[in-house]
Amino acid sequence: MVQNIIDVRNLSKSFDISSKEPGLKGTIKHFFIRQTKSLKVIKNISFEIKEGEIVGFLGANGAGKTTILKMLCGLIYPSEGSILVSGHLPFRRKENFLKNITLIMGQKQQLIWDLPPIESFYLNASIYDLDKFEAKKRIKRLSEMLEIDQELFIPVRKLSLGQRMKSELLAALIHEPNVLFLDEPTLGLDINAQRNLRKFLQKYNKETNATICLTSHYMKDITSLCKRVICVHEGAISYDGKLDLLLKKLSPVKEILIVCRSEEDAIKLENSGFTVKNKIKNEITIKIENRFITSSLKTILNNFEIEDLFINEPPIDEIIGKVLIKKDYDI
Amino acid sequence: MNLRKSLKVYKKFLHTSLASELEYKTNILVDLITAILSLIGSIFLLSIFFQNNDYIGGWEFEQALIIQGIYTILNGITNTWFNPNLTEIVKHIREGTLDFVLLKPIDSQFFISLKKINPSGFLEIMLGFFLLFFCIRINQINISLSFLTLSLITIICSIGILYSLWFFISTTTIWFVKTWNAIEVLRSFLYIGRFPLNSFSFSLRIFFSVFIPIAFITTIPSEVFLGLSQSWKILLEVIVTTVFLVTSRKFWLFALKFYSSASS
Asked: Which of A62, A143, B138, B234 could form a disulfide with A149 if both were Cys (CB 3.0 to 4.6 A apart)?
């Protein structure tokens, strides 16, 4: 049986936030008297993640995804509830725990700016107690997987964003952690660099059975990497389950464009009981529920003179966009 | 964290930061020239004060030069280690890169206090020692084992006090986010340490002994050099240093509980 590697129970987090009124008067008032209020950014959430799973955290900006990741890796103390990651309480940041995890942030970097990435790799290797031989072996393996063996000796400041991000990944993975926390790892990368990074993560997960928790605003990251998603809305979990189930739930119908042989056939089809979206001459667009697609298509092909047909999937970005603004999904 | 690992990691810190600094040769050259000019300027200023007085606060010019020597060593240490590292704490907290430090299996205080090095500060340390050796000759000080031990102890204590004060102020960034000004004030107080404590008024002497212990940082080691220091003062300096180091350490660990990381 696959073990739970992350176990979160009734987790909440509150921050003290100070607010300021606009204008000079507000600024002066704010300087002398800070009005702070406690804001609950994470509200009583619970979930489990199994070893080897890749889980995507979805939510709008400020929904609380990054705060959850930072609590999972031990950077932020939870206000209430409990977290266990690899059998450790993350916020204690014990050496054994830290050697098992890594955090990669798309918008922050740990590489030494003026030196080639290889220097940062060896520095990290010494911090993680790896001897030179082992470090060299791992750098070689990971740089081949990431296809950056040529860039290892070029100063970081001269590397492209994509090459830098790959180097960041290598620096973060040199100790071969079994839990990866990735906070928007493909931010700012071009399409090819994004694809390469995703390919690498898939391969890494397959080879090492590492657990990956990922946040991203690029839907392609989520759809190509994650079977399971946790949707966060205003600090609470609005959905936790399989991605394809969520997509089916959110997009229960498909649109089918049918090109009939003649306009008469199109009129006949229009009057046959299907939900018609529009009709232009011999082209007719109908909406069919996902579960009736096969039977409906059989009926249409057997009873009407059809020249061509196209099944249109609604764009995934549009579907997941709905997740970001809705509160509950009962699936 | 064990000593072997600390030394291994520190060797890497030295290597990477020296390599980073050596990328900018002109900058190092300018820093070296600045260090030499700064020392010449300080000695010149001190000589102006002594132009019409043989004694200031009971110290002769040759004796006051010892304070200048110790100040130069401390300033060199400040520029070599404290300035490049401890000012970075503010940046780490403001930009959220402290996350990377906290997630490494290494003591976070060790990491942020020693990761960088500014090699041009070494020249200042060397100049400070040259000045001290010069002072030993002109003041005809006998070098004995007890003299060397006490000098070393008091100088190490001075470094410890200065580090703790600086680290303490930088730690408050976790709550106040911006504390550059407080660090600048501390550096300004350190400039005061170039002059004998007795040359200040009684109230300032109390202030610089109790609140900002500049007196401990330069005057006591100088008194040791001149054989003027009483043992209770040296003992007091050791106690003050221990209290400062332990307090700054505890304060850092306490402050980390309030670290909320920068938003992404």
From this structure: A143
